[in-house]
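Subject: Protein entry, chain in single-letter code together with its fold tokens

Area: Proteins and the way their chains fold up in space.

Attached in line: The record itself begins immediately under this heading.
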Amino acid sequence: MRWRFQPGRWLLVVALFLIAGCASPIRATDQNSQNNSFWSGRLALNVDADQAQSFSAGFELKGNAETGELALYNPLGSTLAVLAWAPGSATLRSNDQTRNFGSLDELVRHAIGAAIPVAALFDWLQGVNTPVPGWQADLSQLAGGRLVARRSAPTPAAELRLALEK
């Protein structure tokens, strides 16, 4: 049987490849829903110190306050660091090195440059406004994929912004 070029079929094949290239992998559960423990998007942290500090990265957060993982990515999608914690363990994997820390708070402070309340962050992402001394979380835009939390004490002031992927 001889193959003949048919423009209509060729366009259909090209269209299928283009559509397949735009597809995203399906997760076992809806990402960023209130019933799971996986979120991803972009985060930015600004600290109003004598020398202002800012940090931004893509992120994937999974698990819970006791056992979890926070992966940070640069704008090109390369892994900057992976923070992992479990009872009695807090590790930072970065640049093919692993470093252990005494607590999740110490790990986050070292990796990001400022303390953020990771335990409360899980609640905030689920729409629960868990109070944290010195922090004020604004959950009013959470349905639109936005979360902002501000720290007034201890100084210096800081602002954490998350933009979640849908």
